[in-house]
Amino acid sequence: MKTRQFIITGAVSDLALQVDFLGKKEFQTKQNFKALEKLGFEAKYKQVLLLPESGTVLAGTEFANKPKSADPYHQLNPYELGANLFQKLNLSKIPAIQINSLPQNLQNSHDFRNLILGFLQASIDFVTYKKPKEDGPAQQTIGISTALKRLLSAEDMQLLEALNQGITSSRQLIEATPEEINPDSVVQVIQQIFSKRRNTQVEVINYETLNQMKAEGITFVGRSSQHKPVVTKVILKPNGPVKRKIALVGKGVTYDSGGLDIKTGGHMKTMKCDMGGAATMLGVIQTLSMLNLDNTEVCWISAFVENMIDGTSYKPDDILTTLSGQTVEVVNTDAEGRLTLTDALTLATLENPDYIIDAATLTGACVYALTEHYTALMGNDQDLNQDLQNHFEQEQERSQLVAMPEILRESLAGDLSDFKNIPDFRYGGHVTAGLFLSNFINQHNFRNPELGINDPHEYSWVHLDIAGSSYNKKNNDLGVNGSTGHAVRSLVSWVRKIDIS
Predict the structure, then answer these.
(1) Are residues 368 and 430 in the same domain?
(2) Is 263 a catalytic residue?
(3) Active-site residue among 4, 30, 214, 263?
(4) 12, 114, 260, 265: which has the fewest C-beta neighbours closer than 10 Å?
(5) Domain that holds residue 37
(6) Residue in 338, 398, 420, 489 annotated catalytic
């Protein structure tokens, strides 16, 4: 999908709009700060004032930490600051801006990098289906003053570029129309991104093979679409010997009609975003492939399906046999993502990883419980849960640790099958969905002898429910409508930490 976006440049332009980020202390050292106060500017967080005569922009950073709060995200957020700068200015006809100064508390490479990244991501304009603008500069750039270049090393710039490309690819995949991105075409997109990279390899499991494997969690959901289900696997090799393995799994429902339990009341609109988990993991592994991992192999697995309707549609009351050999009774065909994840997670265990992380736009219950601002983070390993949560807090991408109480597990037991895909009650749906998935990372439960598992393991696993956080209406740090790229930064940060630990 085509986009227009500011690009970062090392050159300093005399024509660039000069941007000064100011805290209260820096603001009050300005000779004219009293006059600026009369214009309503006091350097408060996210205040922006354009001074056209001098070609200067003042951007406030003073964060008022009131009322008293235990919220770890209630603090200055550089990524949000950078995005806010773009959103507050009409930059359509401005060829260049330059960040001229920063307050003392933002003068570190991590925060400065995220500030620039937030600006770049907020500046993205998805133009594939729009009439081209007849005026405005052909290319727009954001530069850094000579005094601030010391904050960003060559490695910092490499990470900035990699994250920008990875997050952009993630958001592009979600924003493309369901006609453009489907289980057939998405394979071509993935191969185009990774086929020429020396450190990645792409494997594809087609519909016929999935049927032979009896991966009915995938094939039942997607069989009624003209675009038959497919599984893609991208393996990222490290520079050195493999000491750790990480499996990333992303829900890849390219469009969700709800199936025979069809979505009504306008809820089908925006369901192109139901492959947000796969798009997130695409962004993560693309970013990592542009960096240097020393000893960690990363494998991304996604099952891509369309949940559509025809005479072959799977039905409520059907009982399917997953790749693991465990059986699931279909209570509702609109709880399809967890069915495809049963087989994708099973495939992930066959990689024998140290950790499995999945991301999925899984439940409306997550949005009701936590709002669109938050990801629900849950799993079977308390230390891993907390470690990953720490990286979300470090990157200031809102997530909330959620418990999976064992008392609820029995609610998923089937009468004629091992499990039901949803329980008989409506409460805590994001929690029961997580409990459902946990049955498919424990090989001790598997009953398919053809998998050839001689030494079964239960793997350390985290599930990220990104139903609200990956796609929403301005309830995000970028201030955009649509795809957000949420969780890519945090997951990249976590993998890189694992690689050096």
Answers:
(1) yes
(2) yes
(3) 263
(4) 265
(5) 3-152
(6) 338
